[in-house]
Amino acid sequence: xxxxxxxxxxxxxxxxxxxxxxxxxxxxxxxxxxxxxxxxxxxxxxxxxxxxxxxxxxxxxxxxxxxxxx
Length: 70
Description:
Blueprint: E1 4-5, H1 7-14, H2 18-26, E2 34-36, E3 39-43, H3 55-61
Antiparallel strand pairs: 1-3, 2-3
Helix pairs in contact: 1-2
């Protein structure tokens, strides 16, 4: 049997707001997250998604390019 976290618990674990966890769930960014009624259930072993606004996320998507001074 899998154990699940609530949105609030996942936010505390990942040091982000519950609202951001909900956004990730709605956008399909958390693997294994399931919606039951109006409640999101996040697997205990789920990894925190990368924040799409960071350089690390751009590198993961292959979008990051080094800027050169000309």
